[in-house]
Amino acid sequence: MTESRLTARGLTLAYEERTVVEDLDLDVPHGQVTVIVGPNACGKSTLLRALGRLLKPKYGSVLLDGKDLDRIPTRTIAQSIGLLPQTPVAPEAITVADLVSRGRQPHQRWWQQWSEEDERAVTGAMERTDVTQLAERAVDELSGGQRQRAWIAMALAQETDLLLLDEPTTYLDISHQVEVLDLVRQLNHERGRTVVAVLHDLNQAARYADHLVAMKAGRIVAQGRPSQVVTADLVRDVFGLDAVVVPDPVTGSPLIVPARPWQAEGGDADPATADTPVAVGASAADSG
């Protein structure tokens, strides 16, 4: 079994009286890319918040190297776990360079403020996310995609062994989505970073994940390699979507092709819409 530094045991998470995740166990495979998928409001982002100690469990615990996160100093956690939340908020008028530089705060002490290592980490993170030319721009003046890349750069500059990303491709066009996910794979392959990401796009998840976790109604219903997990039955059970699963022609990973309503019912295609593609994740009603 693959070693795991970050684990959850009997984890129940709630917002006041509303339980979102219940009695969940999870072992994050060390040195791999884990992607969490599932329908809206199934607990994906809530689980990620708990893994990064942004949400205290109602029951159970999250463990880092066998120690409860609640008993580990905040600075120690920040040196080990980097977290990019779904909707981060930047201080007013802060520049991109200043934002990315804040990723180095966990590594600094009162006797050692800014070092060549800090400069190298920030410069490299900005180059890899293509925001170097935006260094002096205010974050709140950027487009959604530019702002997202600046936040990702800050998380990369933190240079933690564990990186948690909540929908890192939000606001990005398809080209930058691929660039960001390729970067995640590169960080994993070349630097051995363990990554846990929440993604909405099941095809992207299947393509980039080593370990796929499918959630529904606050519970894990399946996990493992995408080739083992992603089936037509799982897509129907978790997302309520009839689909065909075929090999991706480029990577060989599972590729989900939504079935058209008339195909699912055994009818003939409507010639008026025969060439209209159906987006992954769209319901039968949306595509009709």
UniProtKB/TrEMBL annotation:
Chief localization class?
membrane
Q: Does the keyword Coiled coil apply?
A: no
Q: Which PROSITE patterns match?
A: ABC_TRANSPORTER_1 (PS00211), ABC_TRANSPORTER_2 (PS50893)
Could you tell me the membrane topology recorded for this protein?
Peripheral membrane protein
Q: Where is this region: Disordered?
A: 261-288
Which keywords does this Swiss-Prot/TrEMBL entry list?
ATP-binding, Cell membrane, Ion transport, Iron, Iron transport, Membrane, Nucleotide-binding, Transport
Xref: PANTHER family: IRON(3+)-HYDROXAMATE IMPORT ATP-BINDING PROTEIN FHUC
Q: What is this protein called?
A: ABC transporter ATP-binding protein
Q: List the source organism.
A: Streptomyces yunnanensis
